[in-house]
Automatic annotation (TrEMBL):
GO molecular function: metal ion binding; peptidase activity
UniProt keyword annotation of S-adenosyl-L-methionine present: no
Record-given protein name: M20 family metallopeptidase
Protein's organism: Dyella telluris
Coiled coil residues, start to end: none
SUPFAM superfamilies the UniProt entry points to: Zn-dependent exopeptidases
Keyword hit for Aminoacyl-tRNA synthetase: no
Source superkingdom: Bacteria
C-alpha cells in the first residue's frame, strides 16, 4: 500500500467533502433522547440520519456491492447499517454514534453548540468530534483502500443514535442484526479520546456509569424562611448529608468499598507511562480558574482517578429559583442530577442498585427521599492486543503521526464496547478518537481537531488492511 497516496486521498476527501458535511451536521440540534424526549416530534434525529445517509449513498458506488440501510425498530432511535463486501470470511465492525449532548452554557463569543465555526485547524460546534465524524472517517478509510485496490475483510459500519443516553436501544439492534453482522474479529470505535494530538492513542479501558435524579422533599409548599428555619430541616442540608454517604466532601473520594475494584497491574504501569508522556497536560488541559489546582500533584494518581476509580459529578439541579427570583423562602424540595463513574470491571447494574439503596435508606428526619435511577452501564477493559494488532498500531502511529503510539484508559463510557466484548470475546479492539486537550466534549467550545481526524482515518485504513494481511497468512 502506498501510504503517501493514502494520505493524499483521505486528506483531500476531508477537505473537499467531510468537513463541509460536518459543518451542516453541527447545525442540527439532534440531542440524545434523554435530553430531548420529543425527539421523534422534533425531527432533528431524522435530519442528522438523512444527512449522513445521503452522503454515504453518494460514496457507495465506489465500493462494489456495498449496501446501506437505515434500520428502525418500533419505538427506538434509528440505526445506520452499512455493509461493505470484502475478501475472505472475516468481518470488521466500525462503530460510531450521531446523537449529541445538550447545549451547555459558557460558549465563547461567536461560538455555540449549533453554530459551526472553523478557526485554524479546529471545527467548533456540538457533535463533530463526539462523534459525528465517525461515519465519514470510517468510509474514508474504506474508500482509500478501494482507491488503491488494497484488499480488506468484509466491513460492517454501525452508527447508533442513542449513545449519549446510555445506548439502551443498541442491544435490540445488535440482536436484530446478529446474522447480518456476523462474528467480527476486529472492532473499530472512533468515539474515544486522545491524550494529545501528536500521536495515536489507544483506549485500554472505559469506565462504567450510573446515576440519576436524587430528590429530597421536606414540605408540600415553600414557607417563610424566617418562620421555618431552625424548625424545618433544609432539603438542601439533607441532600448534602445524603451525598456525604457516597463522597468524602473534603477529598472527593468515593467512600463505599463496594464501588471499587482491584486495578490490574498492567493498567497501573500504562498509567505511569501516560503520565510521563503527558506531564502536566494530564490536568492543565482543563480550563481552571486562576489559582485553582488539581486534587493531587501525583500525575499517575490523576490518571488512575479518571480511568479506574469511582468519581461523582453533580451535573444539574432543580427546585432552586434563579438568583434574581430567590426570596426568603425555605424551599419544599431540592433535586440534583448525579453522574457516578465506576471502574471498568464493576457491574454497572449492581452499582446502580447499590447507589439507590445507599441514598434512600434511613432518610434523615423522615424526609421524602427518592433516587430515580436513569442509567447503569458497565465499563470495559480491553483484551490483550494480538501481536499483529500491536505491531500494526505501532507502525500506523509512526507513519501518520510520526511518533510512537500511546495507551491509556478513558474516564468516559461507551456502553457498546462492553456489550460487544461480551458477545465477541475473541475479537480485537481498536478504540481511539479525536477528543484531545481542550476539545471539551459535552461542554462549551467543543471542537474537532481536523488534522487528527484525518490521521485517525488513515490509521483505520492501515489497520484494516493489515488485519486482512494477517488473516491471509494464518
Amino acid at each position: 500500500m502506498d501510504t503517501a497516496r493514502l494520505n493524499r486521498f483521505i486528506s483531500g476527501l476531508w477537505d473537499e467533502e467531510i468537513v463541509p458535511q460536518l459543518v451542516e451536521y453541527i447545525r442540527i440540534p439532534n440531542k440524545s433522547p434523554m435530553f430531548d424526549p420529543k425527539w421523534v416530534e422534533h425531527g432533528y434525529m431524522d435530519a442528522a440520519v438523512k444527512l449522513m445517509e445521503t452522503w454515504a449513498h453518494s460514496k457507495l458506488s465506489a465500493l462494489p456491492g456495498a449496501k446501506l440501510e437505515v434500520v428502525r425498530l418500533e419505538g427506538r432511535t434509528p440505526l445506520i447499517y452499512i455493509e461493505v463486501p470484502g475478501t475472505g470470511d472475516d468481518t470488521v465492525v466500525l462503530y460510531g454514534h450521531l446523537d449529541k449532548q445538550p447545549e451547555m452554557t459558557g460558549w465563547a463569543e461567536g461560538l455555540g453548540p449549533w453554530t459551526p465555526v472553523i478557526k485554524g485547524d479546529k471545527l467548533y460546534g456540538r457533535g463533530g468530534a463526539d462523534d459525528g465524524y465517525a461515519i465519514f472517517g470510517s468510509l474514508a478509510a474504506l474508500l482509500a483502500l478501494q482507491e488503491q485496490g488494497v484488499p480488506h475483510a468484509r466491513c460492517v459500519v454501525l452508527i447508533e443514535a442513542c449513545e449519549e443516553s446510555g445506548s439502551y436501544d443498541l442491544p435490540y439492534y445488535v440482536d436484530h442484526l446478529a446474522d447480518r453482522i456476523g462474528n467480527p474479529s476486529l472492532v473499530v470505535c472512533l468515539d474515544s479520546g486522545c491524550g494529545n494530538y501528536d500521536q495515536l492513542w489507544l483506549t485500554t479501558s472505559l469506565r462504567g456509569m450510573t446515576g440519576g435524579e436524587l430528590t429530597v422533599q421536606v414540605l408540600e409548599e415553600g414557607v417563610h424562611s424566617g418562620d421555618a428555619s431552625g424548625v424545618v430541616p433544609s432539603s438542601f442540608r439533607i441532600l448534602r448529608e445524603l451525598l456525604s454517604r457516597l463522597e468524602d466532601q473534603e477529598t472527593g473520594t468515593i467512600k463505599p468499598k463496594e464501588l471499587y475494584v482491584d486495578i490490574p497491574q498492567q493498567r497501573i504501569e500504562q498509567a505511569k507511562k501516560s503520565a510521563q508522556v503527558l506531564g502536566t497536560a494530564v490536568y492543565d488541559k482543563f480550563p481552571f480558574v486562576e489559582g485553582m489546582h488539581p486534587v493531587t500533584e501525583d500525575l499517575t494518581e490523576l490518571v488512575l482517578n479518571r480511568t479506574w476509580r469511582p468519581q461523582l459529578a453533580v451535573t444539574g439541579v432543580d427546585g432552586m429559583p434563579p438568583l434574581e427570583s430567590a426570596g426568603n423562602v425555605l424551599r419544599p424540595k431540592t433535586s440534583v442530577k448525579l453522574s457516578l463513574r465506576v471502574p471498568p470491571t464493576l457491574n454497572g447494574a449492581k452499582a446502580g442498585q447499590f447507589l439507590k439503596q445507599l441514598l434512600e435508606k434511613d432518610p434523615p428526619y423522615g424526609a421524602k427521599v427518592n433516587f430515580k435511577l436513569e442509567k447503569d452501564g458497565s465499563g470495559w477493559n480491553a483484551p490483550q492486543l494480538s501481536p499483529w494488532l500491536e505491531e500494526a498500531v505501532a507502525k500506523a502511529s509512526e507513519t501518520y503521526f510520526g511518533t510512537p503510539a500511546a495507551y491509556m484508559g478513558e474516564g468516559g463510557s461507551i456502553p457498546f464496547m462492553g456489550m460487544l466484548g461480551e458477545k465477541f470475546p475473541k475479537a480485537q479492539f481498536l478504540i481511539t478518537g479525536v477528543l484531545g486537550p481542550h476539545s471539551n466534549a459535552h461542554g462549551p467550545n467543543e471542537f474537532l481537531h481536523i488534522p487528527t481526524g484525518k490521521k485517525v482515518s488513515m490509521v483505520v485504513a492501515d489497520v484494516v488492511a493489515r488485519h486482512y494481511e494477517q488473516g491471509a497468512k494464518a
